[in-house]
């Protein structure tokens, strides 16, 4: 996502593998929802060897912390690493969080 | 007698006109595209597409509220999947610029474009669903200054360049 004003988009149930970055949020974007995606192997190992200065990650979130919802993805690396609520690593099945909340009677998708 | 035949002819013509108006045929796409193909009606791939367009999108949406169905076919750009590919401005497999409520529906593969597989630029309420993006030199799918778009069920593999802040999505 590039340029401020890229807001309120939904990125859901995608599989994102072996790219220079997996899912990238640039500074200034907000209100986007990134959930239930499989995002792994970004960047591929050879890229990290050839370009060691590259700081690619499965989820690269350069937006203001908390400005977007990044929730319940399968991912291994993030940049920068959030000290408060890290999105990765997360290796549960996608939807696990929803199921647990349903069991508690707190379905996040129900009004 | 001639008046009766004439009246029947006019009636048949009007019937055919009305029937045709309700069943507008989708634009069918396949083969080689050498200059940007802009679609103004619902369209679908009926075969693989090879794009030789330089510095511009291969397929562009020319209106809002349209659907492009890939039907399991492949759209291939000018780059090679086996050699490094620095991004080149303007090239994309599919571009939705300044539109709303368009749909790009897979399954289908968009690969080997010098910049983006799919570019949503200042567009809103666009849906990209079940498309595979591979070996594009900047991003598989990029959303630029647009809102309320939905990217769902896509597979984005091996896209990007270490020279640009891009990647899968």
Report on this model:
The complex is a heterodimer of chains A (111) and B (169). Chain A has 111 residues and is an alpha/beta fold. Chain A contains two helices and nine strands, in the order βββββαββββα. Chain A is globular and about 50 Å long. Chain B is mainly beta and 169 residues long. Helices cover 12% and strands 39% of the residues of chain B. Chain B is built from one helix and 15 strands, in the order αβββββββββββββββ. In chain B, strands 1, 3, 5, 6, 8, 9, 11, 12, 14 and 15 form a ten-stranded parallel sheet that branches. A five-stranded parallel sheet of chain B has the order 2-4-7-10-13, with no helix packed on it. The interface between A and B is medium-sized, with 36 and 27 residues.
Task: List the keywords.
heterodimer; A: 111 residues; alpha/beta; 2 helices; B: mainly beta; 1 helix; 15 strands; globular
- How many helices of chain B does DSSP assign? 1
- Quaternary state, please? heterodimer
Q: Major sheet of chain A: order of its strands?
A: 1-4-7
What general outline of chain A do the C-alpha atoms trace? Answer: globular
Low-confidence stretches of chain B: 4-25
Distance between the termini of chain B: 69 Å
Mean model confidence by pLDDT of chain A: 86
Give a short summary of the structure.
The complex is a heterodimer of chains A (111) and B (169). With 111 residues, chain A is of the alpha/beta class. Chain A is 13% helix and 23% strand.
């Amino acid at each position: 996502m590039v340029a401020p004003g890229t807001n309120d988009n939904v990125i859901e149930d995608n599989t994102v593998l072996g790219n220079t970055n997996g899912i990238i949020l640039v500074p200034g974007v907000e209100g986007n929802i990134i959930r239930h995606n499989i995002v792994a192997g970004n960047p591929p190992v050879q890229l990290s060897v050839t370009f060691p200065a590259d700081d690619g990650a499965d989820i690269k979130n350069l937006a203001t912390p908390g400005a977007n919802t990044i929730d319940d993805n399968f991912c291994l690396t993030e940049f920068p690493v959030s000290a408060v609520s890290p999105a990765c690593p997360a290796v549960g099945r996608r939807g696990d969080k929803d199921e647990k909340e349903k069991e508690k009677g707190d379905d996040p998708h129900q009004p | 007698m001639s008046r009766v035949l004439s009246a029947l002819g006019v009636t048949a013509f009007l019937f055919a006109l009305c029937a045709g108006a309700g069943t507008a045929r989708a634009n069918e796409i396949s083969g080689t595209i050498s200059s940007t193909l802009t679609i103004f009606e619902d369209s679908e791939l009926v075969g693989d597409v090879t794009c030789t367009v330089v510095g511009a999108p291969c397929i562009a949406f020319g209106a809002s509220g349209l659907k492009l169905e890939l039907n399991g076919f492949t759209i291939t750009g000018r780059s090679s999947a086996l050699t490094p590919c620095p991004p080149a401005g303007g090239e994309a497999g599919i571009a939705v610029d300044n539109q709303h409520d368009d749909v790009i529906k897979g399954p289908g593969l968009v690969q080997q474009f010098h910049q983006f597989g799919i570019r949503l630029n200042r567009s809103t309420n666009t849906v990209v669903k079940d498309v595979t993006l591979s070996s594009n030199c900047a991003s598989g799918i990029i959303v630029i200054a647009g809102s309320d778009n939905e990217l769902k069920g896509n597979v984005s593999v091996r896209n990007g360049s270490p020279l640009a802040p891009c990647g899968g999505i």
